Amino acid sequence: MKRIALIAAFILAISTVAARADTNVVVLNIKGAIGVATADYVLSGIEHAETSNADLIILEMDTPGGLMAPMRDIVQAILGSSVPVATYVTPAGARADSAGTYILLASHIAAMTPTTHLGAATPVSLGGGDAPAEDSGDEETDDDAETAPLSGTAMERKVLNDAVAYIRSLAERYDRNAEWAEKAVRDAATLTAREALEQNVIDFVAPNRAELLRVIDGVEVEVDSETVTLATDSVVIEEYEPGWRIKILSAIANPETVLLLGLIGLYGLMYEGWNPGAIVPGVVGVICLLLAAYGLQVLPVNYAGLALIFVGLALMTAEAFAPSFGALGLGGIAAFVFGSIMMFDSGIPGFGISITFVVTIAAVFALLFIWLISYLLKLRKRGAVSGKESIVLGFGTAMQAFSGDGKVWLEGEAWSARSSADIEKDQQVIVRALDGLTLEVEPVVEQNTDEKDPRT
Questions:
Q1: Taking the mean position of all CA atoms in its chain, how far away is CA 361?
Q2: What is the pLDDT of residues 169-202, one digit of tens each?
Q3: What is the DSSP track for 85-102?
Q4: Which residues pair with 218 in a beta bridge?
Q5: What does the alpha-carbon distance between residue 199 and residue 201 come to, in Å, rounded to a whole number?
Q6: DSSP 131
Q7: Selected catalytic residue, list 15, 151, 158, 403
Q8: Average pLDDT over residues 394-404
Q9: Contact 408, 441 (CB under 8 A)
């Protein structure tokens, strides 16, 4: 009997260890601004954790904030997850500002690394200004509020109050400090990790992931109205990486990428329009413009800035058609720069654009734009003169020394040439005839004023 009891105890111990070793933890990472791509990544990660029967999701986060709609999608996914979510602000020096604060408070476990901080959750309007924390003082009756169109101040007040109610509900769900959560919205209040723990805003402070897993082992959380006890003493970690679609979406949903794609698209279509049959520039241009249009759809954009960009491009085009000693070109560059800055000046963290980048791109593309227009106009003018009339009696330059067959530079192109006389390199020649694509040339010699012009 003793032997049987020992064997049973041994089997029970082995099965317990095996069961604990099978605990699966899926790790997601949010780095940078929260946008559409971020939401897609987190939602797919939570779905993956649910289908793979994971026991815990750790959402490691370092964000300055982001867009409201993607943030709400992430919060709803966390609240509806059948797998507990532990949001962990890491590494040291990281932050969970603005939208990140909402996500942290919505999680079953809220944890931070020392020297991190959270807060500053005041909603930012698309015009770039913060919603006001105080009433403007204007008196409004209930009837007026229901029937009259909302003024800017009234709308901002609605956005602010909505954000306050939202963040309080998230904090109260897990008995966290709802009063401070409201201050984070109304007064843009912030806290360090240690202060957040002392004020019951978060649950744990842990220096690394291993320590976090240790301190939450045995903690009870409510998931789908059921109490779940976390077992994280021995786990299998799975780092969930975004798929190629999310990576492409993340790259496109970037102000600098959108600006580049838009310019490349415009140049490609313009070149195709002036040079029909090139095909490749047109195809590339259409693809780039469609990608840029998608990026503009998912980014906070000021369309007055977009209009100013088009004005800048029009002025640069006018400079190429009607040179104004740089006045139109400089005006176009200035309009392009200010338009680019205005277009992405939403005030939303992580969705601004570098002024240095804009100025550099404007200068490079302006020069390229003016050169391209000038070149295409030159080609068009050349095409206006047909056949031999544009070549015969024209002056060119010998590209090499030759007697017989050689090469001549004429009207911006290299031509095959034939001469019965000796011609030196860089010597000026005159075209006497055109035989197919071969020029019949002769050297231009210095003449006295009495001599006849070689064209006559």
A1: 16
A2: 999 999 999 999 999 999 989 999 999 999 999 9
A3: EEEEE-STT-EEETHHHH
A4: none
A5: 6
A6: P
A7: 158
A8: 87
A9: yes
> How far is Cα 389 from Cα 391, in angstroms, rounded to an integer?
6
pLDDT in tens, 432-454: 888 777 888 888 876 544 444 44
SS3 at position 342: helix
For residue 91, whether the previous peptide bond is cis, meaning omega lies within 30 degrees of 0, is: yes
**378 an active-site residue?**
no
For 82, residues 6+ apart whose C-beta sits below 8 A from its C-beta are 50, 223, 224
Residue 98 annotated in active site: yes
Please enumerate in sequence order all residues whose Cβ is within 8 A of that of 236, keeping only pairs 6 or more positions apart, or say none. 21, 22, 23, 24, 25
User: Is 205 within 8 Å of 194 (Cβ atoms)?
Assistant: yes
Chain segment 368-377, per-residue pLDDT in tens: 766 766 666 6
Give the active site residue among 98, 340, 346, 419: 98
The topology under which CATH files domain 2-243 is 2-enoyl-CoA Hydratase; Chain A, domain 1 (3.90.226)
Distance CA 183, CA 101 (A): 12
Rounded Cα distance between 238 and 61, Å, is 16
Structure-token pair, residue 391: 């070549």
For residue 415, count other CB atoms closer than 10 A to its CB. Answer: 19
**Confidence (pLDDT) at 2:** 54
Split at pLDDT 50, 70, 90, the class of 132 is very low
Please say whether the beta carbons of 281 and 271 come within 8 A.
Answer: yes
Identify residue 334 by its one-letter amino acid code: A
Domains in the chain: boundaries: 2-243, 254-384, 387-443
**Measured between alpha carbons, how far is 111 from 329 in angstroms, rounded to an integer?**
54
- The yes/no answer on whether domain 387-443 falls in CATH 3.40.640.10 is no
